[in-house]
Amino acid sequence: MKYAFFIGCTMAYRLQFAEKSIRMVAPEFDIELVDLPFTCCPEPNAVRAMSDDTWLTFAARNIALAEAEGLDVLTACAGCHESLSLAKHELDEKADRKDKVNEILKDLGLEYKGTSTIIHMHQLLFDEIGVETLSSKVTRPVPIKVVTHTGCHLLRPERILHVDDAEVPVKLDSLCEALGMEPLEYMDKTMCCGAGVRKTNSVTSYAVLREKMTSMSMVEPDAIVVFCPTCFITFESGQRVANRIFGTDFKFPVFYYTELLAIAMGLPDTDLLLAEHRINLDLPKSEETSEVTEVDMGDSVASRP
């Protein structure tokens, strides 16, 4: 399988270890990741609120780049996935908007045709590869109790995104079970992490986070597992802010799923991924950590000195 890899701004600049984990596991499933000169997706809330046409044109350009190479787009960020998926739906359903965008793209030598599919890592692992194949790759099970958070931008609107049931998401739980983890049910599982309102009302944002993490703490998990870079940052860094504001004492390790996949598969140098975490958890380590492990980081920010 070969995909145009859409990393997204947040992962490339702030969670380079999560990006690296994707690039580590991809070859193990015969997946080739192709780096293209993508721009921001663009961000599905702020940019679209200012100019719907600008949002749609930026997204169309990104998809057109993949179409020109005959590739589907593989996303790693929930926000990017939603933005590109909604844009594709809009362009495919409304010919007048597609024609308007293509008039602009023509100056760049590009054309949006609607031939590329947008797929998230969550979908690739669950729907395309499957939990049985994942389980067969596990050499070092990760025996921890976890709570999962799929994230708003992967679940809604369900009729367009088709990632999981928006009200009762279970697929990420199954993916965790494939690696030896025990996913725990908890209240407010589909509740937002709070990131969506942080720029307009930070206190409300952290109050939402406090309620979410209070529900998580009731079932006493060892860690939180996500598939969204923004949710990752909100949980890992935001819990410290919530602790200062509300006097709580949250200390949850947070993982992007493919980090745990790399660990469970026994891939070398996974300790380098975990070194960037603010809150650590004792997990199985690879037998050997080589001095240098070459992982193709393409042209991403994470590959630069």
Q: Which H/E pattern describes the elements?
A: EHHEHHEHHEHHEHHHEHEHEHH
Broad structural category: alpha/beta
Give a count of the beta strands, DSSP E runs of length 2 or more: 8
CATH architecture of the largest domain: 3-Layer(aba) Sandwich
Helix content range: 40-55%
Q: How far is the first residue's CA from the last residue's CA?
A: 29 Å
- Report strand order across the widest sheet: 2-1-3-4
CATH topology of the largest domain: Rossmann fold
Rough shape?
A: globular
Computed CA radius of gyration, to the nearest angstrom:
19 Å
How many structural domains in the coordinates? 2
Written account of the structure:
- With 305 residues, the protein is of the alpha/beta class.
- The chain has two domains: 2-120, Glutathione S-transferase Yfyf (Class Pi), Chain A, domain 2 (Up-down Bundle), CATH 1.20.1050; 131-274, Rossmann fold, CATH 3.40.50.
- 47% of the residues lie in helices and 10% in strands.
- It has 15 helices and eight strands.
- The strands form two sheets. A four-stranded parallel sheet has the order 2-1-3-4. The chain has a four-stranded parallel sheet with strand order 6-5-7-8, sandwiched between helices.
- The longest helix has 18 residues, at 229-246.
- The protein starts with a strand and ends in a 31-residue tail after the last helix.
